[in-house]
Amino acid sequence: MTYIPEALRRLVAERAGDRCEYCQMHEDDTFFTHEVDHIYAEKHDGPTVEWNLCLACAECNRNKGSDICSLDPETGNVVALFHPRRDRWADHFLRVDTGVIEPLTAHGRVTARLLRMNRLDLVADRARLIALRPYPGEES
């Protein structure tokens, strides 16, 4: 695991607005601090540079691991995961009032499934947050 300089960590967190770039959960609403994730993992020769880093909550980061693609549950095709530097969240996901993150594309489907975005406990947490205030990502 490569050391990420503090200035680069700050840049990644500020750029993300302290939100997980996969599920949009704000760091203030999680138990664990968000982590800097290599979009293309180091084991795939992904460099530790700004364009290959994103902010991820512990849940999304653990589930993503070093994966860069998965099988689309609808087609069985190999599809790249959502790429926070290249893709716009609202093009691939829709946050529903029930707390579900609805995938809109193949990239969204493989990412939501692999990162387990719609586990019952996470959906319940999002639903409680939605009842209190607008959920992050709505303005995206």
Describe this structure in words.
The protein is α+β, with helices and mostly antiparallel strands. It has one domain. The protein has five helices and six strands; from the N terminus they run H-E-E-H-E-E-H-E-E-H-H. A two-stranded antiparallel sheet has the order 1-2. The protein has a two-stranded antiparallel ribbon with strand order 3-4. The chain has a two-stranded antiparallel sheet with strand order 5-6. A hairpin with a 6-residue loop joins strand 3 and strand 4. The longest helix has 13 residues. The protein starts with 5 loop residues before the first helix and ends in an 8-residue tail after the last helix. 32% of the residues are buried. The mean pLDDT is 92.
- Reading side by side through the largest sheet, how are the strands ordered? 1-2
Q: On the 0-100 scale, what is the average pLDDT?
A: 92
Report the order of strands and helices: HEEHEEHEEHH
Structural class: alpha+beta
Domain HNH nuclease: 7-62
InterPro entries: HNH, HNH_nuc, NA-targeting_endonuclease
Protein name: HNH endonuclease
GO molecular function: endonuclease activity
